[in-house]
C-alpha cells in the first residue's frame, strides 16, 4: 500500500511526469534528459532517483553510459490503482440501472 | 462485460470525473438520484435525510450486520434542478479528509438513454488519492458483510 502511494506521489510532480513522457518512446541518458529542462542538473538527478526508486524508470547499462527507460508494467499498476474505485461506481450504477428498469411509477 | 463507467483522474490534480451512460430515460436516471428509497437501494445505504432543493441537506448512514454504523456521510445541495443538474457537497464523517464538491450533470442522449457526468473536486490532490484508495478497504468490508448474511441464512 505504501509503495503504491509513493508511485502516486512520484507522478504528482509535473517535472517527473514530463520525464516519463520523454523516455516513453526511447531510452535516454541523464544528461540528455536534463537538457530538456531549465532546472539544475542535480534537481533532475533527484527526480530520476525518485522515479527509479519507485520503479517507474529502469536503468540499463550501455557501455559507459546509463540509459533510463520507462517501466510499462509499473505504469499499468497506477492505472489499476483507480480500478477498485471505478468498479465501486460501476457496481452502484449497474444496480441503479437494474432498479430503474423495473421501476413502475406509483399511480 | 463492457466497461460503462469511466473514471478520469489525472495525476497530480485534485479532481476527478466519473462518466456513465445509462439505458434509461433521463427522467428515470434523475429520479434515482432524487428519491430516498431508490438511492438507498443502489447506494446500499440508509437515507436519513434528503431535502432535494437549493440549500437542502442530505444524510446517509450504513450499518453492518450487528447494527454498528460503518459509514456516515452528509452534505448540502447548492443546486437541484430536475433532469439537469445537482451541485452538492459530500463529507464523510469520522474520515481524515474534508468535504468534497460534486457537480452532477444529467443529459438526455436519446428517448431511452441518458448520461451522467460527476465532476468531484477535493481539497487537495492528496485527499483525492486517499479517497481513491478507500474502495480497497470498502470492498473487504462488503465481502465480509455478505459472508455474514450468507452464514446467517444457512
Automatic annotation (TrEMBL), chain A:
Residue span(s) of domain HTH arsR-type: 1-90
Coiled-coil parts of chain: none
Gene Ontology MF terms: DNA binding; DNA-binding transcription factor activity
SMART domains in UniProt: HTH_ARSR
Keywords: DNA-binding, Transcription, Transcription regulation
Entry-linked NCBIfam families: HTH_metalloreg
Name of the molecule in the record: Winged helix-turn-helix transcriptional regulator
Lineage per the UniProt record: Bacteria, Pseudomonadati, Bacteroidota, Chitinophagia, Chitinophagales
Automatic annotation (TrEMBL), chain B:
InterPro entries found in the cross-reference section: ASHA1/2-like_C, START-like_dom_sf
Domain called Activator of Hsp90 ATPase homologue 1/2-like C-terminal: residue spans: 23-151
Family annotation (Pfam families): AHSA1 (PF08327)
Family: Belongs to the AHA1 family.
UniProt protein name: ATPase
Organism, scientific name: Chitinophaga agrisoli
Amino acid at each position: 500500500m505504501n509503495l503504491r502511494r509513493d508511485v502516486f506521489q512520484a507522478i504528482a510532480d509535473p517535472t517527473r511526469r514530463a520525464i516519463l513522457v520523454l523516455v516513453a518512446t526511447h531510452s535516454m541518458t541523464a544528461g540528455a534528459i536534463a537538457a530538456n529542462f531549465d532546472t539544475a542538473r542535480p534537481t533532475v538527478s533527484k527526480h530520476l532517483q525518485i522515479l527509479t526508486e519507485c520503479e517507474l524508470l529502469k536503468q540499463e547499462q550501455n557501455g559507459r553510459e546509463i540509459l533510463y527507460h520507462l517501466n510499462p508494467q509499473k505504469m499499468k499498476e497506477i492505472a489499476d490503482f483507480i480500478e477498485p474505485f471505478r468498479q465501486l461506481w460501476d457496481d452502484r450504477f449497474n444496480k441503479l440501472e437494474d432498479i430503474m428498469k423495473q421501476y413502475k411509477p406509483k399511480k | 462485460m463492457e466497461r460503462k463507467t469511466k473514471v478520469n483522474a489525472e495525476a497530480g490534480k485534485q479532481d476527478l470525473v466519473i462518466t456513465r451512460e445509462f439505458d434509461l430515460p433521463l427522467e428515470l436516471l434523475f429520479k434515482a438520484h432524487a428519491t430516498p428509497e431508490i438511492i438507498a437501494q443502489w447506494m446500499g445505504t440508509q437515507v436519513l435525510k434528503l431535502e432535494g432543493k437549493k440549500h437542502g441537506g442530505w444524510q446517509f448512514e450504513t450499518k453492518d450486520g450487528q447494527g454498528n454504523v460503518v459509514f456516515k456521510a452528509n452534505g448540502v445541495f447548492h443546486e437541484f434542478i430536475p433532469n439537469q443538474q445537482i451541485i452538492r457537497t459530500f463529507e464523510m464523517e469520522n474520515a481524515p479528509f474534508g468535504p468534497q464538491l460534486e457537480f452532477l450533470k444529467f443529459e438526455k442522449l436519446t428517448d431511452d438513454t441518458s448520461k451522467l457526468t460527476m465532476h468531484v473536486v477535493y481539497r487537495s490532490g492528496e485527499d483525492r488519492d486517499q479517497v481513491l484508495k478507500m474502495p480497497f478497504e470498502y470492498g473487504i468490508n462488503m465481502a465480509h458483510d455478505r459472508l455474514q448474511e450468507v452464514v446467517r441464512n444457512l
